[in-house]
Structure formats: structure tokens, C-alpha cells
């Protein structure tokens, strides 16, 4: 017997189930933390314990958006190195990033999470890989902010141990030791990972990238993840420069390198995957390796266009990611639905690259699949967790667009009237319900200024 029910009626519904079932006018009933029913017309009669009944006229309901790649700390280093490609951009920013401390990371996480939530994200993730010595409990701070904002969350506990003196890209003072990184990652899993299917917090093992991580950390990281039963995440095949780095240092391309270190498999998802040939795509398909597609960041850093239509045709799980906000200042995922569709239509498949429904699927079910959670989130179906968004489509921006899914994907960013996570309201009429948005904005500005001051001070590098 449900303790409380929320009923939403008279709205268009895109369920993103296996058949892409849609209703021009339908209902969703939420009972406690779960979706109880979805269907055409009004809600079933005689429901008890209805605490809220919402008239969704002029709205579209979809599953909540799932973000599969982000770096929260970059919220306080936005708008820098704006005309660089990836490697130059990294080299320009590493010295600043290496100065982050716990209050900075906490304020940046709060900002990133608030922006995610406001844009209809119900499951967020953070790939955090900068852990300067003595900086405090950064993972704990990030996880705490996710809980405070009310979003479902995966922390991909990152790491770097290949500094400049080992032929890597980051400066030596920005990296951890192999042993230190592995021990801290294991401790984060033991402290925070919830293996239950309804979990609000999960941890993944996430060494940063081939050019900032030793082969041994890749290998032992994969072993650690499998021993603990958690997922694996990293950056891969992002740029032509990375491809050259792998050929020169490892004598093979990125995908072969990942395979040789245990980094292809159904428990792995990788950000970007732009520079993939047919045999790379076949390897991802064969092993069930997932992809976080980040179209805005790839464009901002001139990385190229990921072969999403080919990945989908090969059955590769693909979700969307904003990537860090130092390479995608907007920090919004609902605009990535549009950008994924537009960017891929500029590629070789042209107008047949992606449909509006496929774009919505990438941002919802696709993301859930990539995070290994598609059995519980990512579509609106009875028995799944109540993570959903009510998008307002009856104002100037959208009221004359015929098809609600086209309005959401191709139109201006749609306002969020209501967002539920685990049955709880996290956004109401465009405002966050759990945190004070203005306080989050103020703290982020203050910490961004403090980081800029600390980073330009000569000497006393964090070591
Ligand atoms: Zn990234």
C-alpha cells in the first residue's frame, strides 16, 4: 500500500520504453519512490493517498535526463583557454586545477549539480580526477552536495599518476602515486558505494586518460573495479593527438590499448570515442563497452564528430555527457539532445544520422544503460523508479511547435515545471527545491575568484 501518490494528467508523454510508446494526452501515477502506472487518458479512478494532483496541460513528461560524463570542479574554471584544442587546453589549465581544495570543489559541485537539476537531469555523474595532496575530502564533499541537491549520482573516482617526468601531460605536482590512487579509490568505494538497484549513490573506478595515467594504474584499476563489482570509466579516443600519443608510447591505438589493459567490457563506459575506426567500433560492440557522447565539448575543443549513428547501428550503448564546464560552459544536458542531433547531421550520415526520438533516447535510456542502471531508470514504465521531468511547452518558445518531442529536442531549452527523483521533488517551476540557487551561485563565484588568486601566486605549488 503506497503511503503517498502523485498524479500527473493531461500531458503528452514520451515513455522511451522499448517501443518508444508515446501518448498525446495521458497520465503518470507515482507511488512513493516508484512509477505505478503510465498510460493514455486520465489516471485510474479510486486511487488512495493522493497527496498531489497535477494538471499537465501544455506539458510533455519524459524520463529524467541521465548525464554520463562531467567534471564538476571545472565549474569554477569556466571561460578560460577558449581557443585551444584538447592538449593545449589541458596544459593551460592543469596548473590552476592542481590548486583546488575542499571548499572550492564543494562550491563547484553545488553549481554543477544545480545546473544539471534545473535542466531536467535526474541522474548526475562526476568524473573527478584532481586530488592535490592535503586538499581535504574531495570525494566526500562532492557526494554530500549531490545528496543535498537531491539527484541520483555516480562518482567516478578518477586519478592521474603519469606526470610530465613520466612522459605524461599533467605537471608532476598534480598527480597521485599508483598506490595512493588505488588505495583512495578503494576507500571511496567501501565508504560510499551502494550496490542496491535503487541506489542514490554509486562509485566507479575512473583513471583519467591514457596520457595522464600509467599502464599499471589502468590494469590495477580494472582489477580493483571487478573485485569490488563497480563500473569502470575513463576518457578514450577523444582527439587525433591522443591517437598519436598512444601509437608513439604504446605502439597501438587507444582501443587496442584499452583492450590490452582490461578496459573493454559491459561494465566499462568511455567518454568521447570520437576517433574510432570500424574495427574499434566492432570491439566496443563485441564487448558491450558503452560510450558517453559529448557533442558540445567535442566541438568546443575541435576534437571531431563521434560516429554515433555507426555506434548505435553496431548496438553499442551510447549516452550523453556535458563534459566538464571548462569545455562546455553551459553545463546543461537538455541542450545536448539538440547538439547531438545537429552535430551528427553534419557528419557523413547527414539527415539520416539521428532522429529526434533517438536524441531523446540517448539522453535518457541510453545514459541509464551506459551507467548500468537501465533496469531501474531511463524510461517511464510501471515498477521503475520515479525519476521524471514535466517540461513546459505552452509558452512563446514552444507553443507553435507541432510535435512535443521535436519541441523538446529542437526548440529552445524548455523550462522544467517539475522534476522528480526517487519520487521526491527536486525542481518546481524552474527553481531548485532542496538548495538555494542564489547561495550556490554566490559561493561558486567566490571560490572561482579565490582559485584564480591562488593559481596566479608564484611559488608554493601544492606538492
Ligand atoms: Zn571529460
Automatic annotation (TrEMBL):
Residues 60-406 form the Amidohydrolase-related domain. It holds the Pfam family Amidohydro_1. SUPFAM superfamilies: Composite domain of metallo-dependent hydrolases (SSF51338), Metallo-dependent hydrolases (SSF51556). It comes from the Bacteria. GO terms for molecular function: 8-oxoguanine deaminase activity; deaminase activity; metal ion binding. Keywords: Hydrolase, Metal-binding, Zinc. Its EC number is 3.5.4.32. InterPro entries: Amidohydro-rel (IPR006680), Metal-dep_hydrolase_composite (IPR011059), Metal_Hydrolase (IPR032466), MTA/SAH_deaminase (IPR050287). This is 8-oxoguanine deaminase. It comes from Streptomyces corynorhini.
Amino acid at each position: 500500500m503506497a503511503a503517498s501518490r502523485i498524479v500527473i494528467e493531461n500531458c503528452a508523454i514520451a515513455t522511451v520504453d522499448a517501443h518508444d510508446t508515446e501518448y498525446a494526452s495521458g497520465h503518470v501515477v507515482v507511488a512513493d519512490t516508484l512509477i505505478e502506472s503510465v498510460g493514455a487518458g486520465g489516471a485510474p479512478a479510486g486511487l488512495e493517498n493522493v497527496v498531489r494532483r497535477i494538471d499537465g496541460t501544455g506539458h510533455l513528461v519524459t524520463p529524467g535526463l541521465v548525464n554520463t560524463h562531467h567534471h564538476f570542479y571545472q565549474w569554477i574554471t569556466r571561460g578560460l583557454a577558449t581557443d585551444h584544442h584538447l592538449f593545449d587546453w589541458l596544459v593551460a589549465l592543469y596548473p590552476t586545477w592542481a590548486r583546488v581544495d575542499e571548499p572550492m570543489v564543494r562550491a563547484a559541485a553545488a553549481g554543477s549539480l544545480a545546473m544539471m537539476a534545473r535542466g531536467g537531469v535526474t541522474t548526475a555523474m562526476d568524473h573527478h580526477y584532481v586530488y592535490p595532496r592535503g586538499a581535504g575530502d574531495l570525494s566526500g564533499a562532492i557526494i554530500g552536495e549531490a545528496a543535498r541537491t537531491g539527484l541520483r549520482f555516480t562518482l567516478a573516482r578518477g586519478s592521474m599518476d603519469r606526470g610530465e617526468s613520466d612522459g605524461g601531460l599533467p605537471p608532476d605536482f598534480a598527480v597521485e602515486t599508483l598506490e595512493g590512487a588505488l588505495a583512495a579509490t578503494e576507500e571511496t568505494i567501501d565508504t560510499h558505494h551502494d550496490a542496491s538497484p535503487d541506489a542514490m549513490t554509486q562509485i566507479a573506478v575512473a583513471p583519467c586518460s591514457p596520457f595522464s595515467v600509467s599502464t599499471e594504474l589502468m590494469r590495477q584499476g580494472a582489477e580493483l573495479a571487478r573485485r569490488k563489482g563497480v563500473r569502470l570509466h575513463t576518457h578514450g579516443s577523444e582527439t587525433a593527438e591522443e591517437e598519436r600519443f598512444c601509437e608513439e608510447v604504446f605502439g597501438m591505438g587507444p582501443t587496442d590499448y584499452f583492450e590490452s589493459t582490461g578496459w573493454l567490457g559491459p561494465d566499462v563506459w568511455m567518454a568521447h570515442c570520437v576517433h574510432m575506426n570500424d574495427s574499434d567500433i566492432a570491439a566496443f560492440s563485441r564487448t558491450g563497452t558503452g560510450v558517453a557522447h559529448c557533442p558540445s565539448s567535442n566541438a568546443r575543443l575541435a576534437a571531431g564528430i563521434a560516429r554515433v549513428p555507426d555506434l548505435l547501428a553496431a548496438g553499442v550503448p551510447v549516452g550523453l555527457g556535458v563534459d566538464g564546464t571548462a569545455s562546455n560552459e553551459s553545463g546543461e544536458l537538455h541542450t545536448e539532445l539538440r547538439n547531438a542531433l545537429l552535430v551528427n547531421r553534419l557528419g557523413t550520415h547527414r539527415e539520416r544520422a539521428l532522429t529526434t526520438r533517438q536524441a531523446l533516447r540517448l539522453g535518457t535510456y541510453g545514459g541509464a544503460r551506459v551507467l548500468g542502471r537501465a533496469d531501474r531508470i531511463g524510461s517511464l514504465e510501471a515498477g521503475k523508479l520515479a525519476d521524471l521531468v514535466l517540461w513546459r511547452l505552452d509558452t512563446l518558445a514552444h507553443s507553435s511547435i507541432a510535435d512535443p518531442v521535436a519541441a523538446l529536442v529542437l526548440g529552445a531549452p524548455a523550462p522544467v515545471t517539475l522534476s522528480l527523483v526517487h519520487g521526491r521533488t527536486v525542481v518546481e517551476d524552474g527553481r531548485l527545491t532542496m538548495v538555494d540557487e542564489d547561495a550556490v551561485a554566490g559561493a561558486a563565484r567566490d571560490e572561482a575568484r579565490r582559485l584564480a588568486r591562488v593559481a596566479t601566486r608564484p611559488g608554493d605549488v601544492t606538492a
